[in-house]
C-alpha cells in the first residue's frame, strides 16, 4: 500500500480506501462485513469511508462495530451528511440543525469521539451556504471533526464555498468525493483544475464503474446471478446506464490491455484513476474479504503513457465527460 496527502492538508490517506456504501447493513451480513474490514487493515488500508444514509444508517453502525478495539489513531474515518435519515423535513439537507444532529448520531453509531473527514454529501440549494460552512467550522473548533469536504459538487459551487471560507476565516475544504472512472470523467474539465489550484484532493468512488469495468458483464449474456446488476438493493439502478451491449463490447477491449500489464480488469480500472495526480484515494467496496485482497493489488501500479493511450483508444469514445452531469437535487429530497 502507498499513502498520499489529502489535498493541502497534512493528513495522509491510503491511496486505496475501503467504502461500505452498498454492502454493510444491507447486502453483506455483519460478520462478513467485519471480515472485509479486517482484510482491508491487513492489506494496509487505513482509510474508511461511509455515510449516515447508507443502509438507512446501519452501515455506520456495522463499521463502528468492525473498528471497535482498533487503535483510533491508526486509521482515518470519513462520513457524510445530506441525504434523508428520517421522515421529517429537517432530517435532511445541510442546515445547521441537521448537521449538528447528524454528526452526533454518526459519532454514536461509529463509536468514536471524532470524525477525521466530514463531507457534504451533495450541494444544498435550500440552505444558505454560509450557514452550512459555519456549522462545519464550528465542528472543527469543537474537536468533533478534523477536516471537511464535499461530494459531487460542481466547480461553481466549490468556488462559492471557498470564497466564503476565505472571507469569514473558516477552515477550508480539503477534499472532493466524486464519481470517477474510465467511463465517467466529468470532473476532469472543471473540478480537477480548480481543486489542483486550491489544494483539494479527490477521494473517488466507483472506480470500477459499479463493476462494469471488472469484465464480469459480457455483451449478449445475462448478468451473473447475485451480481450488482441483478440486485435492486445493490445499486442496480446506477449500473443500468452501462448495461447495454454497445458499451460492454467496448469495455471488453480492456481485457488484453489488463492482461499485458499483469492485472485483472478491475485492478486496471483502479490503477487508472490513481494515475491522476489530483486523486488522493480510490474507494473500493467488497462483499467478500478476497475481493479486498485482489483490488488492493492496484496500489502502487504505474501505468505507462502507452497503456494510458491504449485505454483511451479502447473506450475513450464512450466515456462521459460533460461537467453538467454532476448535479445535486433541487429541491432537496
Structure commentary:
The protein is of the alpha/beta class and 333 residues long. The chain has twelve helices and ten strands. Strands 3-4-5-6-7-8-9-10 form an eight-stranded parallel beta barrel, surrounded by four helices. The protein has a two-stranded antiparallel sheet with strand order 1-2. Helix 1 packs parallel to helix 11. The longest helix is centred in the first third of the chain and has 15 residues, at 96-110. The chain starts with a strand and ends in an 18-residue tail after the last helix. The mean pLDDT is 92.
Protein topology:
Blueprint: E1 3-5, E2 12-14, E3 16-19, H1 30-42, E4 47-49, H2 58-67, E5 76-81, H3 96-110, E6 115-120, H4 129-141, E7 145-150, H5 155-168, E8 175-176, H6 191-198, E9 201-204, H7 236-239, H8 245-251, H9 254-260, H10 265-274, E10 279-284, H11 289-295, H12 305-315
